[in-house]
TrEMBL record:
Residues 22-383 form the AAA+ ATPase domain. The gene is recF. It is found in: Cytoplasm. Belongs to the RecF family. This is DNA replication and repair protein RecF. The keyword Nucleotide-binding applies.
Amino acid sequence: MIVEHLSLVDFRNYAHAELELRRGTNLLVGRNGQGKTNLAEAIAYLATLGSHRVSADAPLVREGKDAAFVRARLVHGTRAVTLELQINKQGSNKARISGNPVKTNELPRYAHAVLFAPEDLQIVRGDPSSRRRFADQLLVQRAPRMSSVIADYDRTLRQRTTLLKSARARGMKLEQLTTLEVWDDKLVSLGTQIIDARTALAADLAGPVARAYAAIAGEDHSPELAWALSIGGADPEESKLEATDSGPTADLFRRALVARRSQELERGLTLVGPHRDDLVMRLRGLPVKGYASHGESWSSALSLRLASAELLRSESPGGDPILILDDVFAELDAARRRRLGQVVADYEQVIVTAAVAGDIPDHLREHAVRIEGGEVLGPLAEHPIEEGA
C-alpha cells in the first residue's frame, strides 16, 4: 500500500497543501517548525484515528478555522481508494471513502500506517497511559471494530465514576448504590474484550519485537512484553506490577470490582479495569522503564513500532503498511542509523522527515522534497536549503 497523493486544507500550519508521494522512500526536508511532521501526522491519523502528539483534535485545526480537511489517495496494486476526513474543532468528525459518507472508524480498514517519532520514547519511559495508547491504536488498526469497543468502555467508565463521585459527595452507603451493578455489567463486558485483545497483542508482538530489537541494537537483550493487569491484583497506577490472581478475564474483573468497591466509594474512582493496566517491557529480565540506558530505550521504542509494522504486514491483504519515520535519524548514533535504514529498505513506501538530509542514509534520499513555512516547495535539488540561512 502507498499514498500517491495527500491534500490538506487548514490542517495545523497548512492553509492548503498538495504532496505527491512515490513508491519507495520519500524524504521530507526542512528546518524545525516548518510543517514536516504535520504531513506525517495527517497520514497517520487516517490509520489510527488519533495524533501521536496530542490527545484532542482541536490543535489539528488551523488557528481561526472550525475544521481541517485531509484527503489521501491510496493505491494497492491496481486498486485505488480516496479517503477524506473532516476534523472538526467541535463536534464529531466526518469521513468519506471514494465519495461515500462513512463512519470515521471505517478509515483504518483502508489506511494502514505505522509512525515512529521522538515522542515515542515516552512509550517506554513515560507513564502507563502512553503504553495503553500505543496498544489501543494498534488494536484499532488490526481490528477497526475495537475503536467502538474502546469508546464505549471509556463512556461507561466515565458514567460509573460519576456515580461513585456523586455517592461519595452525598455520603451514601454501598448498599444504597443499587444501580452500580448495572454499570459493572457493562464495564466487565466491554473491558474484558479490551483486556483479552491487548493480551493477545502482546503475545503476537513478542517475536517481531525480539527480531526488531536485535536488528536495531545489533545484539539480543531478550526483550519481553507482558501486561500488568489491575483485575489480577497488579496496580500500575500505584507502582505495583505483580499480579496475584488468575482465571477467566470476566470472572477476575467482576471479583476485583466487588473486592475494591469500598475503596472506590471512598475515593470516587473506578480502581480496576483496562484503564489502569500497563504494558511492561523488559530487557534482560529488568523493566525498560527505570533500568534501560538511553540507547536501549530508543531501541526498545523503535522495536515496538517496527514490530507493529511487521505484524500489520503479515496480516493485511492490502500489502505493507506505510512506514513513517518522523525526525528519528537525528536521535540515533551512526550504527543505529545504518541498521534502521537496512530494516526499512524493503517496505513498499517509507516516509522520512529530517531537518538535515545528511542525517539520512544515502539509499533513503532518492526522492527528497523541501518543506518550508507550511508549504511544499518541491524537489530538494531545485529548492536547496542554504546553510546558515
